[in-house]
């Protein structure tokens, strides 16, 4: 197996910088659209053979160093008793607003309620056959709670923040239940064969550092510490956290995911040498000509300055109208430039 | 005149921390809605008596320490040759896509093309009668260019970034023209009587620090240095800049505006003692009960730790469904707690 990705997660030195792309299995790939045209998004998530097929597509096409399970962060929330639909964005028909709503939520039995997720992981481990490691994933408690309270995406998450400030007991009860579910869900992924876990906190960065520390950190920290991490590194990505990496770091884990709103070198200085970082190319750079893509990849590798424990990635998911060959060129640049760099440093 | 606001802009010590709210003249106020119901948004911007009326409303109701001209950042872009409509968000019917589009743009003669802006300022200086100072404002070149290229708001500003990366000559020509216009526009506001200028860069934080430094900073810097700042301090607010304050600082000006995504004390450490800061309460805190509002105001004042040069504000515009009395309570908290603090420190 190509081990650069898992080695980098453990801050071990590697021959070339490993790279994958958030949302690498997705709409920008014609081969994905071909599968997707035959079913709904939810059917795709729930049909192990199809979910495995689209998971592998970018590994073959892009040459990335890790596969990531195709699923949605809201998948495990549905069997808690939330009615989920995609129109096309995710919508819950029965958002959570009160303590009795929280009490009604149940903790799913993962293997029974979400058998397709575990089955997809098993197929993938077989089909990847040790080629590259498989990343499992889940939403961070705060991001899941946001969707459950708002019922859908939001600009300022007014309902969630109102609950947080005005009914902290309800908010805390919800966060605790979601965290417990997430621990069971992600440990089931690890038992099924996931070799790394990424936690996505898409909305944690909507909060001030003080509110993040008070309302979110204890729950994410419990989640990360509740995972069976002996052989499975954990990547923690909080979008919009450039101004509070020191707080995010306290949640634990092995690697901190970075968006593109700060210098990667400075991020490493804040986070310290014992944790890795993942990132952090602006996804829109993939619209640019090859010369600009190469320049930006080089800049980020230079900012890292050869420190072990860097996984290259975008700072957010790949956009749906990116030319696939630009994504492939970027992956190639990361490998080529980092290998040259590591040779030069040894030489 | 109450001078705390202008004194704080110059980092002079003050008896109590001055405070105003971005978008303080707006939809959350019933008295604003009463005026707005009689005309369109553009008519309101272009009718000096009405624009002045809604500018003064929050000064009377909230007790803030500064008034800010009621207008829109796109107002001066229209006479450059861009057809503007609000539906209800701003839309340009003829977005900029090529060098010939840029060449067609003209630099307005402010007093002739935008007489209503200058007239509004003159009415306001008369009616405010020295009660509180009047802030004029404009959009930063990058934010204006984004709107001109996209034709409307956007999630990822793909058209603008494509132009920036793929046609840097067109992008630069556009930025230069917008900057020249902005210098003339804001100096006309100063001549008309504006006592402070705030530059809003709503979208600068969409860029990586490296791209901001390369593509935006030279233009914003030229704008700030082109203003007649002898008696008129300049506040520069780049939303989403928590991870690149050291870069933003290089653009110059007297005060840096902060959103709520970083600790105000840390921001001051990065920016240094020679510039002031403005911010940085999460706007959604105004949904919270009074006890939480007071706690959060106190936290921010504590983070500032009595350093001169702090103007209290929200980290972004006030939201349209905030109860007006909560905003007034917040303003009162800032005055009461900072005055107590400053007494305690002297004592």
Structure description:
Two copies of one chain form a homodimer. By secondary structure, chain A is α/β, with parallel strands linked by helices. Chain A has a single domain (4-346), classed as TIM Barrel (Alpha-Beta Barrel). Chain A is 49% helix and 11% strand. Chain A contains 15 helices and nine strands. Chain A has helices at residues 4-9, 30-36, 41-46, 48-62, 99-104, 110-113, 115-128, 141-150, 158-166, 168-192, 209-225, 245-249, 264-271, 290-304, 324-346; strands at residues 67-68, 84-86, 90-92, 134-139, 196-201, 234-238, 255-257, 276-281, 310-314. In chain A, the strands form two sheets. In chain A, strands 1-4-5-6-7-8-9 form a seven-stranded parallel beta sheet. In chain A, strands 2-3 form a two-stranded antiparallel ribbon. The first copy, chain A, is globular and about 60 Å long. Chains A and B meet through helix 9, helix 11 and helix 14 of A and helix 9, helix 11 and helix 14 of B.
